[in-house]
């Protein structure tokens, strides 16, 4: 069963943990000095916050977390069928977890990730250059950027 994911950038981790713990009526499942994550079943959501100097404040991205590789392949297929460039990150360390993931942006630039978390990590990890998703031209000009799957073109 898939779980909705929201990641929010915050300016004060302690105040935000207190606020969201009160809002959700639960303490975070993961709590670090710069990160917290709630794995809620009602509503079924993976809600994460982080305090990073370079991060956007407010909603950073949304996504779908899957429970196994079969669901991951199903969601990856949907991303590829969505007629937008896909950033296939693959195996990565992100948000204190080892995951397999891909990224896509909707037509208005809202970034979505699809991922399977396989284990925990002792480090926060990195983030891909998601600005690539805003423009396929930007991705092709970057020397070391992961390759984007080409967008399908449609004709009227």
UniProtKB/TrEMBL annotation:
Single GO BP term: response to cadmium ion
InterPro entries (UniProt xref): ArsI/CadI-like, Cadmium-induced_rsp, Glyas_Bleomycin-R_OHBP_Dase, Glyas_Fos-R_dOase_dom, VOC_core
GO molecular function: dioxygenase activity; lyase activity
Gene3D superfamilies, sorted: 2,3-Dihydroxybiphenyl 1,2-Dioxygenase, domain 1
Keyword Lyase carried by entry: yes
Highest taxon listed in the record's lineage: Bacteria
Record's keyword annotation contains Cell membrane: no
Domain VOC: 2-117
Keyword tags: Dioxygenase, Lyase, Oxidoreductase
NCBIfam families on file: ArsI_CadI_VOC
PANTHER family linked: CADMIUM-INDUCED PROTEIN CADI (PTHR41294:SF1)
The protein, known as: Catechol 2,3-dioxygenase-like lactoylglutathione lyase family enzyme
Organism of derivation: Novosphingobium marinum
